[in-house]
Structure formats: structure tokens, C-alpha cells
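User: Quick sanity check before I run a bigger batch. Here is a single chain. Can you write out its predicted 3D structure?
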Amino acid sequence: MSTTFESYPEWHNAITVRCGITLTKDYCQTRIAALKDPSEPSTKAFIDTYGTQYRDTVVSWFEQAALKQG
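Assistant: Done. Predicted structure follows.
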């Protein structure tokens, strides 16, 4: 069973509270670049599991988090 998030606040809570990851601008930019790179094995696996539309949603959430960091 795959776990997906329905909203930015739900995703943000999972990343920052449950996983303990600090969403710095650099971290977000690194994840955005990786998720946009179709040759990246982890990106291929992500798309195979969740689909391109959900990948795009997650990218937008990382972009939103990066903007909040200034």
C-alpha cells in the first residue's frame, strides 16, 4: 500500500515532525532537482509508484517550502 498526502500541511507535518527533516532552502532545491531528473533511479521509482502527477505535486510542495525559507 502506498502512502500519499492530500495537502501541503499534511505533507509538511510528515516531513518535519514525523521524519524530523528540516526543510532548508538547499535541501528543498536538492530534492526538487532530483525529482525533476528522470534519469535519477529514485525519481524513476517514485514515478513508478506514485505517478507523474503526484511527483509534480510533491515538487510544488518542495518549491513552496523553499520559498518560505527566503
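The two ends are 36 Å apart (CA to CA).

User: Great, the batch can go ahead then.
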